[in-house]
Prior knowledge:
Elements: E1 15-22, H1 29-41, E2 46-51, H2 67-81, E3 87-90, H3 93-97, H4 103-113, E4 117-124, H5 125-129, H6 137-143, E5 145-149, E6 163-166, H7 176-184, H8 195-203
Parallel strand pairs: 1-2, 1-4, 2-3, 4-5, 5-6
Helix pairs in contact: 2-8
Bound molecules: adenosine-5'-triphosphate and magnesium ion.
Amino acid sequence: MPVSDAISHQPVARRRVGVFGGTFDPPHVGHVLAGQSVAEAANLDEVWYVPANDPWQKSDERAVTPAWLRSEMLRQACQVSRSETITFRVSEVELATGGPSYTADTLSALRADHPGDDFVLIVGSDAAAGLHTWHAADWLSGHAEFLVYQRGGQPAEPAAGFSTTPVNVPLMEISSTEIRRRVHDGRSVRHLVPAPVEGLIAAYALYREPDAVS
Ligand code: ATP
Ligand code: MG
């Protein structure tokens, strides 16, 4: 038998995957830069962006863009932002689950579906400050590892009791709220969102209405 036919029993290295959840309505360059910076600083093999199906902490406050369209914007943002050194993917695990999106369920589903990978959650300081308000916060405090970075204009400490590691990310003081406001006001969002996202915002006439749900 030729040597090349021998089966290798070398163990496959586990991948370290950063899970970057959010509403992404729309995704912007702050999300991309944070993903890339955290991946480099924490030696991640990949970053998986996870759009929330129903961001239950927000959906009472404003009309959220349908999940499939936020996911498509994110997919195109990841495609144009990938590089030789970092792999960005979009996971639709929360769309597949349906209903309100809970990170504890998402992490459990990812671990069950990808037993060969290690998952760590990526959160900005604003999100980290509210970890205790998340669904199944007690479970998360014992079972999840968080990489936390300070977000531009929103300095805050992570909620106590969680396993958090600080990571440096260049500060970029932009938000999806600001982008929605700019579109509503007829101002440009060029350079604030990846080019295909700008195209989808125009094609689907997003954010023409003010945020507030009447
Ligand atoms: P919104 O204004 O609608 O709340 P957002 O810009 O805060 O949108 P989210 O989808 O709420 O975006 O946030 C998802 C994740 O991205 C959170 O962990 C948040 O801290 C992080 N994030 C948001 N904006 C930035 C930014 N400019 N730089 C780095 N991280 C960011
Ligand atoms: Mg936010």
